[in-house]
Design a protein that fits this description.
The complex is a heterodimer of chains A (about 350) and B (about 200). Chain A is mainly β and about 350 residues long. Chain A folds into 3 domains: about 80 residues, no CATH class; about 160 residues, Sandwich (Immunoglobulin-like); about 70 residues, no CATH class. Chain A is built from 3 helices and 23 strands. Chain A has a 4-stranded mixed sheet with strand order 8-15-14-11, with no helix packed on it. Chain A has a 4-stranded antiparallel sheet with strand order 18-19-20-21, with no helix packed on it. In chain A, strands 7-9-13 form a 3-stranded antiparallel sheet, with no helix packed on it. Chain A is elongated, with a radius of gyration of 33 Å. Chain B is mostly beta strands. Chain B has one domain: Lipocalin. Chain B is built from no helices and 18 strands. A 4-stranded antiparallel sheet of chain B has the order 4-5-6-7, with no helix packed on it. In chain B, strands 8-9-10-11 form a 4-stranded antiparallel sheet, with no helix packed on it. In chain B, strands 12-13-14-15 form a 4-stranded antiparallel sheet, with no helix packed on it. The radius of gyration of chain B is 18 Å and the shape is globular. At the A-B interface, strand 16, strand 17 and strand 23 of A face strand 11, strand 15, strand 16, strand 17 and strand 18 of B. Strand 17 of chain A pairs antiparallel with strand 18 of chain B, so a sheet runs across the interface.
Chain lengths: ~350, ~200
Amino acid sequence: MTARRVSILVALAGLGLVVGSCTTSTSRPLGQKPTTTRTPSPLRPVLAVHTEATPSAWEPVEYGRARISVPAGWKVGYDPGATARTILGSLRPSSSSSRPSPVEIRLVLSTAQVIAGTPIRGEALLTNTTGRTITVNTCAVDGWLFVGLTNNQVSYDAFRFLVACHPTIHLRPGVNRFAVSISTTFQGCTQTRSEATPQLPACIPPETPPPLPVGEYTTKVVTFGLPHGTQLPSPIRVTLLATPTPVSHGPWPEDVIARANFAPQTAVLIPGSTASSKTFAFGFAINGCMEPCSEPIVRLDLRSGALKVGPVMSATSYLENVDGRVVVFTAQKVSLPESAVRMTCGSTTAAYFCS
Amino acid sequence: MWINDGGVLLLLNTATGKIVRREYAGADVASLALSPDGPILYALSYVSRANDARGLVREFNAITGQVLATRRQPFLSGGTAGLTPVEGAVWVTSYLSSVSVLSSNGLRPMALPQGALPLDPPSATAYRGFTAYNLGAFLLLQSYRGMTCLAPTTGSLRATALWTAKQAPSWTPIALVGHILVAVQVTSFTSSKVLAVHIPEACFG
């Protein structure tokens, strides 16, 4: 009985409800989202953990006017204004059943504060407590472990494919780690701007869902194919921030590597294949002549600044980096009849040659 | 490698030097560019009629030569233009006036985020000199007054650099080596120098 009481207290902390200052009721009419209401209650005495009821390896934590007990390693914050705050995600203790969960899920995020639109990387730790391998009984390609963000304006739903292949994910006894990425953009959008709603915003053309609004969210984990009684993690509070105004810089600092006299549009870079190998820049030598001129290929060692002058190529040749090789395209010499090269004097272009 | 030969696109095997495919492009192709991951070839042609200069951007399957999408792109008369493919999109810059980004999925125009364009020159009639460079980690959009570092696929602004009118950036990027941009700066008709430009961290997103 007492063990059960502690579990309930910790579960309340995970849900972010004020302990001891109000009571909470949750109602969920069919087809509607869950709603939570609070009613004030008379002041109650400070709650404390019944030490005999504390499971081994659990630790007491001060929690406002109460002391609660949580598994070692949990981090629980207290916001005196309203809600409890789980800083790093942890598993949510089982509600009232004394039966252990076959799988306990813990969620760990790399950060709890990002610019809206930037995905959050994290890890889901699934602890198989049964001592035998558990097969996730669903087609993995369809998706079986989803993590999203939700608040009272934004809902999150797991969208699955319908491939229906054989199960391929197996959970060994103990901890199994799976990388997760939490999107901070809307799950969908409409290409018809007039049909946009707060829940289904207009796409960033052509079809990119916009970032979620700036604000506070909590994580929501949805799983498929895990055994009955799987323990989902407590929601983690996540803050989405506005894009910062980029810093303006003056001219960027620059150093002269070499006076190589490359014609800028002809230069290509061939990076070294290893950290120790040389990086070369190739290009044709710059020339001030006003018509196509033959120029040599120049090679510059970017580390030493050493220059090497190669063969002279015909006019209008150019260079390309093709898979780390310099490919030289060079025009063939052709003879044209005089009539083909005759120009009409008077136009801007021809005037230079006619003078 | 694809080569434009007077409106005929030639697919060259660079190992053997043999032409393995020919596709008629139909109009004067001014520039060709492959998407960074290879499967899409973009071609830009000019379609000039009286008082109307337009560009024609086409998207080909780079292996089969099949035309995937076509889009007419308005340019102000006299502007030359360039194609800068990135993953999932292609940037079309008119040297004279405009910058647009088209989705690789059907060449549909994407909205350019606020602040993505570098500053205009003081005079509205002056050339803006828009040029885009895909440096992998970011897209560098250059004008005569400055540069912006943008996320290549969305165009979202990461950093801005301003130049005074007398110090307009005059270098041409070659490639990024770590956080150093190797660039060529022309100093006279017959001389240039190779620069190491230190790129701010913000550009890398």
